[in-house]
Amino acid sequence: MTSPDDRPAGGNGRRASPCTLVIFGASGDLTKRKLLPALYNLSRQHLLPDDFAVLAFARREASDEVIRDRFGAEVARFAGADLDVAAWEWLADRVHYLQASFDDDAAYRRLAERLDRAAEEHGTRHNVLFYLATAPEWFGPVVDGLERAGLTSEEGGWRRVVVEKPFGHDLASAKALNAELRSALDERQIYRIDHYLGKETVQNLLVFRFSNGIFEPIWNRRYVDHVQITVAETLGVEGRGGYYDGAGALRDMVPNHIFQLISLVAMEPPISFEADAVRDEQSKVVRAIQPMRPEEVLTRTVRGQYDAGESGGRKLPAYRDEDRIDPESSTETFVAMKLGIDNWRWKDVPFYLRVGKAMPRRLSEIVVQFKRPPFTMFRDTPVDALQPNALVVNIQPDEGIALRFGVKKPGASMGIGNVDMEFCYGEYFDEEPATGYERLLFDAMLGDQTLFQRADMVEAGWRAVTPVLDVWKALEPRDFPDYAAGTWGPDAAEALLARDGRRWWEDPS
Ligand code: BG6
């Protein structure tokens, strides 16, 4: 094995403290697509502690050797670049397997023994990060099992638990899960993950807003006309029908990913970059999202479901014809909404959001559109014909920021053209292949909760969408499917903005 001195530390010299990472659900999709590539990337960047072990916990029969081979093949497939063999072997040396079921008390006692062994063999000092990459119905039972085996107690080392999404399916279930976790763990041991917070451009929202002096003075209702958030995917449900048909686009994306984006765009400057200082401000924004009255749900929300069509160069069947979807399903695959934030900074500034599967292209962006100038002195150029200024933050796939403004078109007459001043991440910085989970795993090992959701934020998110879920449940949609795969959703999504004299930034035509 390599010694610590042979391996330079990355991450500004930060390296996580010695620990064992226990992955529950090690044979699942999340582990192979995201967690393993992320661990491998951390190993490549020398960010993992030398005294480190991974204990994969799953039901399938396997040995350490078998699991190392399988994980190796998955890393090679999903890490997105040529395999750095040394980095993988360094990690593979530390991987162990425990075959057991989540509902077997004896399994947790065996887990305790294996953790002792890892501490001796790898020097992990009884620090343990438990990662719940299981189906959500196991979150509670696994934490109970850990508690009964004394594994949540922090005598002798730290104990932290990463909880994946979905965190509940409504307010009541999220509260019940929070209560269950809190009966075994302290809030500072709970890391509720939202992988949007692992994306560089999402983290950059904080840096962009609070490390530049020029934007914050105009970042408010006096200058901002409205904000648009679009998260569009070309994919359909991709074999996740069992989960998705019970959830739908609203539950899947809005109270979690979209509200994280809104909170970072709309929050007040925190007093420091401490986890709770940042999360206090984020939480205030989510709590200030105006709850909708039932009649407002009808005018301020749009839902849709895709029909057969072509998206991202691929033919997609209608949602109802996808695997494990009810052929009469009334689950939405598209949602658009007009939200208000009830506070001094944002009163009367609409936040429009739009989320959909089977859209024409993959695009996640935030547009902050500014008010038009009050008066134009240029002859024959009515002010309404001018495009307003906008700041466009592109989260994926082309990470960057563009500022749109008007300039004089060259020539003898006074024509105005709209141009973009663009910053593109890839042009300025070397981008490492990343899944978005690297930073989050690393922070959890460091004990930094800034990019993880606190209980109150999760509950506030569900509280804000509950009126919509209630009205939608009471009124079955009658026109599903109502948009063809490969289009920007139902016409009603255009009408939502058109009624306010606005349009989506991305041209729908
Ligand atoms: C997940 C949702 O949380 O986020 C998926 O469950 C969605 O339905 C995914 O496809 C989108 O993530 P990303 O990183 O591809 O934008």
Task: Describe the protein.
The structure is a single chain. The chain has about 500 residues and is α/β, with parallel strands linked by helices. It has two domains: about 5-165, NAD(P)-binding Rossmann-like Domain (Rossmann fold, 3-Layer(aba) Sandwich); about 195-375 and about 450-500, Dihydrodipicolinate Reductase, domain 2 (2-Layer Sandwich). About 35% of the residues lie in helices and about 20% in strands. The protein is built from 14 helices and 18 strands. The protein has helices at about 30-45, 65-80, 85-90, 105-120, 140-150, 170-185, 200-210, 240-265, 275-290, 295-300, 425-430, 435-445, 455-475, 490-500, and strands at about 20-25, 50-60, 95-100, 130, 160-165, 190, 225-230, 300-305, 305, 310, 315, 335-340, 350-355, 365-370, 390-395, 400-410, 415-425, 485. An eight-stranded mixed sheet has the order 8-12-13-7-14-15-16-17, sandwiched between helices. A hairpin with a 2-residue loop joins strand 10 (about 310) and strand 11. Helix 5 (about 140-150) packs parallel to helix 6 and helix 8 crosses helix 13 (about 455-475). The model is unreliable at about 1-10 (pLDDT under 50). It binds 6-O-phosphono-beta-D-glucopyranose (BG6). 6-O-phosphono-beta-D-glucopyranose binds near residues 165, 233, 252 and 364.
